[in-house]
Design a protein that fits this description.
- The protein has five helices and 53 strands.
- The strands form ten sheets. It has an 18-stranded mixed sheet that branches. A seven-stranded parallel sheet has the order 17-18-21-24-27-30-32, with helices on both faces.
- A hairpin with a 4-residue loop joins strand 4 and strand 5.
- The mean pLDDT is 81.
Length: 636
């Protein structure tokens, strides 16, 4: 037994010895295999250290070169300045006038000399030139002639005012109640007495100021526009207030406390007179009887026989209408559509007055053409939605009673154009305001209410808080949601609004307009999210590549001439059914967005088949083909 145990122990020791010898052999083999790699690592570390040393040396050289470069640039600038100063001492610039910039003229007190200060095209600095000839005409006007710049007239016989009155002897004036009832038969006429009044012109004219409860307001300009046609004599001006302007005054105040005249060029008050007077305008409906028409044939016949016509329904006609006699047309909230090619809504030869007695917007869908010596007056909320020029021709346009959003007018040959207080001209090609309209210039203009101009996110946020008309003058980027509960008209002016950080533009009001530009949202949100009773989206590109371009939660939204990159969602998730109309040359691209989505019982009406664009969010909707070529999407 003991021999067996010893034998077993010897065998175990022999096995362990063999195993230990094997491990030693393995370690030796590993060391032999990794030795070259370790040598390579050591070599690479040495190379890296060497390269880092060279890089540090080059960085030091670069800093030295940059410092030397800056010193040389400063030395060059100093030498160039010294050179310019030396040239100025030995050379005299032959100043040339820049024709696009008018000189500034300075007259001596006795008009014996005049200096023209103008911008030099050569040196970019201002230079002076003294007139070489001064002439005086029979009316006392001094004229200065220059060698390099145009002649300059200086009017010395400026008008002066000695008194102001109105036509108190008119049948429209009631002395007992101190009330003037103005109408077509009894207009309100202001009379100005003074000296040199015949010098009133488009260059030197008067402004009418009205005193309302202690504050002076600019009311109108006095010069012969072809509309107001004031009687201008040397010692008297008789100026008839336009009835539409009187109506605006009556609607706002009802009375005036004083009349003043001011210099339109300087804004300084020239003279004033106390005049406590109540104003009333007779409603034309009380004095005349309107013929109500409901068809195109009835309207055509009425133009030949009646002076006062009112629409009683929407009217559609293939041909337009000739207006050869003076007429007043009340659209009364209805629309007038002419469908024939090459047709205008009206060709006017006489005086045509278009009014809208309804609070609803009345629309005409073709232009109005005016022949020479014709006059077009528009009052109320009227929209002319023509494919080309809304109003053009040779006549005179009076918009003093106009209260609508905007009119598009081609003014190349028009004899004159008058717009209401609070409106301005905006050029169509850049949406910029035109302060000085001239009938002989070529303009395609919008006439629209004065807008708050915005160019930054901060200005836009404040403008949205206040509501009203907003005009972009630059691209704007915001990183927060925009909100307004005010009625608002946003004219993007051809620029873009970019919204980041999963934000959107939310409109919560009764009426809103968004037009003329691009709104793009980055993130999981809608480009335009609306809770508006009546919204118009016109000539816009709305972009939301991850969600919905247009999200309409309430009310009626009309999309015109627009491109929506991303889907559309119509819902009634808040109060009323949301209805979206896309019927006028719109483009809808759903891409990777949620497509067309109908939440609950919203409605989408399109002029194209939207079947392939239905989304999968909430209810995807059911497409129904209508008899009139349109399609309706809603939930069954």
């Amino acid at each position: 037994m003991k021999k067996t145990v010893k034998l077993l122990a010897v065998m175990i020791c022999l096995f362990l010895a063999i195993s230990l010898a094997s491990c030693v052999n393995i370690d030796e083999k590993v060391n032999e295999a990794t030795a070259p790699l370790n040598d390579k690592i050591t070599s690479l570390n040495g190379q890296i250290a060497e390269l880092q040393g060279k890089l540090d040396a080059l960085e030091g050289e670069n800093e030295a070169l940059e410092a030397e470069k800056a010193a040389l640039a400063a030395e060059k600038e100093a030498l160039e300045k010294e050179l310019a100063e030396l040239k100025a001492e030995v050379e005299v610039c032959d100043h040339l006038w820049i024709g696009e910039v008018d000189p500034e003229y300075t007259w001596a007190d006795d008009f014996s000399s005049c200096t023209a200060t103008f911008l030099c095209i050569e040196c970019g600095e201002y230079a002076e030139e003294i007139a070489y000839q001064i002439d005086e005409d029979a009316k006392g006007n001094y004229i200065a002639y220059f060698d390099k710049v145009p002649s300059c007239e200086h009017l010395t016989a400026l008008p002066t005012v000695t008194g102001i009155s109105f036509n108190s002897d008119s049948a429209g004036y009631d002395a007992e109640t101190n009330t003037f009832i103005a109408n077509e038969t009894n207009p309100f006429i202001l009379t100005v007495f003074g000296e040199n009044l015949s010098s009133v012109s488009e260059k030197y004219d008067f402004m009418i100021y009205l005193n309302i409860e202690g504050t002076w307001y600019i009311f109108d300009r006095i010069f012969n526009t072809g509309l107001h046609s004031p009687v201008i004599e040397e010692e008297k001006i008789e100026y008839q207030f336009d009835l539409g302007r009187v109506q605006l005054l009556v609607d706002s105040y009802g009375s005036i406390n004083g009349i003043g005249l001011g210099d339109a060029e300087t804004g300084a008050m020239i003279d004033s007179a106390i005049l406590d007077l109540n104003l009333v305008v007779n409603d034309a409906e009380d004095e005349v009887e309107f013929l109500t028409v409901t068809t195109a044939d009835e309207l055509l016949a009425a133009f030949n026989s009646y002076d006062y016509i009112r629409l009683g329904a929407d009217i559609e006609s293939v041909k337009g209408f000739d207006v050869t006699e003076s007429v007043t047309l009340d659209l009364a909230g209805y629309d007038l559509r002419v469908t024939g090619n090459g047709q205008a809504t009206f060709w006017t030869y006489q005086e045509m007055t278009i009014i809208n007695s309804s609070e609803e917007t009345s629309k005409m869908y073709r232009e109005i053409y005016m022949y020479s010596d014709s006059t077009l007056k528009i009052s109320g909320n009227v929209s002319i939605e023509a494919s080309y020029h809304s109003i053009n021709g040779d006549g005179f346009i009076d918009l003093t009673g106009y209260t609508g959003e905007e009119l598009y007018i081609y003014t190349e040959r028009l004899s004159g154009l008058v717009i209401p207080e609070g409106y301005a001209f905006y050029e169509t090609f850049n949406e910029r305001r035109v302060d000085n309209y001239k009938a002989d210039d070529i303009y395609e203009v919008y006439v629209r209410p004065l807008a708050t101009e915005v160019a930054t996110a901060e200005e836009l946020i404040i403008a949205l808080e206040n509501g009203g008309h907003i005009l972009f003058t630059d691209n704007i980027t915001v990183d927060t949601s925009l909100y307004t509960s005010e009625d608002v008209s946003i004219n993007l002016g051809g620029y873009s609004l970019t919204i980041t950080n999963d934000s959107d533009l939310g409109l919560h009001s009764e009426n809103a307009v968004v037009k003329n530009g691009t709104i793009e949202v980055f993130g999981n949100n809608a480009a335009l999210k609306t809770y508006v009773d009546n919204l118009l989206v016109d000539r816009c590109t709305l972009i939301s590549r991850e969600y919905i371009a247009l999200y309409c939660c309430d009310g009626v939204t009309t999309v015109k001439r627009s491109r929506l990159i991303g889907g559309v969602n119509a819902s009634n998730s808040y109060t009323d059914v949301a209805t979206v109309y896309m019927l006028d040359n719109n483009i809808l691209e759903v891409g990777d967005s949620m497509g067309i989505c109908i939440s609950q019982n919203g409605i989408l009406i399109t002029s194209f088949d939207p079947t392939d664009m239905l989304g999968e969010y909430y209810n995807d909707g059911v497409v129904t083909t209508n008899d009139d070529g349109t399609f309706t999407v809603k939930v069954n």
